[in-house]
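Q: Sequence in, structure out?
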Amino acid sequence: MRNFDLAPLYRATVGFDQIADMMDRVLTNDVAQPTYPPYNIEKTADDAWRISIAVAGFAEADLSVELRQGALIVAARKAEEREERTYLHRGIATRAFERRFQLADHVRVTGATHADGMLHIDLVREVPEALKPRRIAIESSGASDKDVVDAKSVN
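A: Exactly. Output:
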């Protein structure tokens, strides 16, 4: 894989630091991408998405969903078990995790639900009225009735 130097991008642009940082994170191959817990991202409408994370073994109280600096952070920490158990096979991982999802501008979290070992987080993009395209009415440039002046003869 090639390594890209984004230093010229930082020098030649103003106000695009967030995009350059995101590209830098994506192109860095030194950081191993976590695979636990597994998750799905599905598109539910044109401007709506749902993130589903497999959180088997975690109770609602063990999970936290937080929005911080444009990133959705989902974390889980299992409370210590008080009773001793002897497992013959332990295949359900309940280790602590923190998963981050970088959200685009104007994307907000509308809700989170925990059911059947799955955590569902619903997202929607709401573009402010000031940023939505608007149609400008075009008026004709010809003379209208109010611009016509009646002329009287002087003779």
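The radius of gyration is 28 Å.
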